[in-house]
Model the fold of this input.
Amino acid sequence: MSASRTERLLNLLIALLNTRYGLRRSELRDKVYHDTSSSEVAFGRMFERDKKDLRQYGFEVETVMDHGWGSDDPATARYRIGKESNRLPDVSLTSAECTVLMLAAQLWEQAALGSAAQNAMRKLQAAGGLVEAELPPEVQPRIKPAGQAFEDLVTAMHAQHPVSFRYLAGSTGRDEVRTVEPWGLGSRFGQWYLVGFDRARDAKRFFRLSRFTSAVTVLEKDPYTPPAGFNVRTELDSLPELPVQTALVDVAPGKVLGLRKRASGTANGNTPDGGWDRLSIPFRDAEVLGEELASYGPNALVAEPAELVSAVRRRLQAAADFAASPAPAIDFTGSVPAKRARKRTSEDQLKRMLQLVPFLVHNQGLHISEVAASFGVTRKELEDDLLILICSGLPEGYPDDLLDIQWEDDHVFITQDLDLTRPVRFAVDEACALLTGLETLNGLPELAEGSALESVTVKLMAAAGEEGLKAGSIAGPEVGPANSAHLATIRQAIADGMQLHLTYFSAQRDSMSERDVDPLRLYSLDNTWYFEAYCHSARGLRNFRLDRIEGLAANGRTVTEAARPAEGFPVKLFTPNDDDALVTVELAPEGLGLADDYYAERTAPLPGGGLLAEIRFGSTAWLPMFVAQHGGAVRILEPADVAEAAREWVAAALARYGG
Done:
């Protein structure tokens, strides 16, 4: 959508909102479109496309016909947009309800629905529904996105476009291309599932995202209609959990401590590599365990079952093939230090401008940099929006008929809003983000037991209307902690300002350590819980997984003055430092989400949909494991010695499988 079309749609919207009786097509063609060159048929097609676009933004264009003679003549039809039916209803929230809602919105920080959640919160703020609220430091849950496939599937699902992808079927072991109408995404048994209509099999099917073996392609020119009243939670309730199987894995002496902890049995020295240990590992999903075992490289060798051997070897071979392919030129020209930006379109710009006007009405005099930060754009992008807005208005175009916005002193004021003061209703992705987030929070007892979670859910459902009913297309994971005793101990220590002594297993270093820490904040990704703390051994902030804590107790000392939480909310899983190693990686299309997961400092797109990314790592020693684990989704480009170490790690692992 070109910038001129963006401006035309905005002017069309303002004209149809500000007419009581409606405007005829001829009036719109003359005064809004200024169209004198195209035929009536060509103009009619353009007008119908614009009506469809406005409907996608939440504005339904009404057709009003005259009564009596000639009432069925299209030339006499008039068009308008009702002022109330398209607007977000008034929502009044208490401070406790706002706290819960903010937690629900923050769940999606790095997932595809993150921007949708923030859009919804801005609409509530513009409508005056949000009040001052504080986020509790001891509860900061988040949902971990299931890779780039999750992002692409959510986009396709809300736009109602089919998708295609390669899929490794668990029942047959065949890796085939599937074309699917995506109906819903949900998490069950710690795994994300797609539920949809498989066109080749002419039936509903379930697909585990861990079994996708390629990037997702969205078929944008091929729409579909999902079944009415679809609820992915109900569908996933019918899924049986995968049966427990046993894997036999040979591991090098003294290595892979994390896997040893989970072993149900060990046979010392009873392996083809004399002196190695054979572990019996219970598992349910070969693809999930295969990802972990691939990361161990030459220190682990799967003996059986064959399905698991294949899963590990496939990842290692993909990593080796990616590393051996021609390397792209490393060029970050024009990039800036920032989180990887999602592709911005003119549709995004128009959505933003429709939020911008009511936001400015309710936040008069904000500094332009604050406004830009609130919308997650640069100052230049915001000024481009404002320049289009101040040229938009009623068809006659007199000064009083235009939007009047001023920002000459860097403080933004709006004095003419042309009835755009109230935000438009929630879009389907915005309703999904908030309502799914609220439902996910039911897994936290301290929130589920209060009345705020229930009451804010009822209010949001009422405000979302029909779009709220479509929130059943997404179901979040369980966010309750597996070890509630550790959680309670840490929460109490945070509240009391007391230090903790812990015995901790580091998967990256494959070793145990003992530390004294000042606990600061608790947070989670799905049901994996972490706590941020000042570590006196490392003399800096660190994040610790609760499921890797072997021992935990108060040491009787109060926290020190050095204990200061990292800036910002939510807590970052990784906290880069200036003295960390700067590593340049190439990400394949299916691995793009890693740039966000590891807080890339700079990114640059590559032909074919890949990405260059510059990431800081505190230690490069574990990066060969990182490359092997993600099996062809990422490779190291610089430093050269780290890239070579990763290639050798993968090659040595493949050699153990006879490759």
